[in-house]
Specification:
The protein has about 260 residues and is of the alpha+beta class. The chain contains 10 helices and 4 strands.
């Protein structure tokens, strides 16, 4: 069911594939001589092209997407729907995802700098990403109250309302479901696809519009992937930060989950 939008998107590109195969370099689908071995070696079926493009797009967009940590009241359907929505955005308008990833990278870097400038906290860009993606959950009276922004966390630590959470970069990466293997497979898939097109161009063989579009989308997605390289992927639960019993109750939080928790 979730693959229906992707299937529709590829079906919309089928006319472009057919027109490309029938026009580029004077090659026609109806006039190809399949009995000629040299002709068969350079001939691909429609579904071969669609399958190759689909695998490349799925590998690039599926690996590049780095959603934030789900909220407490969000189920699996909501999480998967959001992920699918981001993948569709990457396919339809990859420049928007590049803008989004760039903004997240800059805010994560600034958050790490703010913490490093305060009391010798050792934060990396990964810490900044983790904080902005909802990585720190405030607990009051042993109940989750709200997700803390990096500014709120830094303020509460300075005021002595909470203890500075001790979490090293290795612990954050351990929570992440994106490892070097999955990243490497996506990069190899994109490189293999690009080399295929380069080889066909050198041999003066037809290249379809769908393949060119796939290469463009995958390349743009790779830019966003670069900005999200240090962002944890697929983290399911935030790190708990406990409010001190001696401090006044928190108020005016940016992401309030529970209202009237004190009553």
């Amino acid at each position: 069911m979730t693959l229906l939008p992707l299937a529709i998107l590829f079906l919309l590109h089928v006319p472009f594939v057919c027109s490309s195969l029938s026009s580029i370099n004077g090659t026609s689908l109806s006039t190809l001589d399949t009995s000629d071995p040299s002709s068969c070696s350079n001939t691909r079926s429609l579904w071969d092209i669609i399958w190759s493009c689909a695998v490349t797009l799925f590998a690039c967009t599926g690996t590049a997407v780095h959603p934030n940590i789900p909220g407490m009241d969000e189920g699996k359907f909501t999480v998967y729907s959001r992920r699918l929505g981001i993948m569709m955005m990457a396919l339809i308008s990859p420049e928007l995802m590049i803008t989004w990833a760039t903004a997240q990278y800059l805010t994560a870097r600034n958050a790490a700098k703010d913490f490093n400038d305060s009391d010798a906290f050792e934060w990396t860009t990964t810490h900044g990403f983790f904080a902005w993606m909802g990585g720190f959950m405030l607990y009051f009276n042993d109940k989750p109250r709200a997700t803390l922004t990096p500014d709120e966390l830094l303020h509460f630590v300075h005021e002595g309302f909470v203890e500075m959470p001790i979490i090293v970069e290795a612990d954050i990466e351990d929570r992440s479901k994106g490892d070097a293997l999955s990243k490497g497979i996506a990069i190899l898939q994109l490189a293999w696809f690009a080399l295929q097109l380069v080889a066909r161009h050198i041999q003066n063989l037809p290249i379809t519009l769908l393949e060119l579009d796939t290469l463009a989308v995958a390349a743009l997605t790779g830019i966003a992937y670069g900005f999200w390289w240090k962002k944890p992927k697929g983290v399911g639960h935030p790190h708990a930060v406990y409010w001190k019993e001696t401090a006044s109750p928190p108020s005016n939080l940016a992401y309030e989950y529970v209202v009237n928790i004190l009553t």
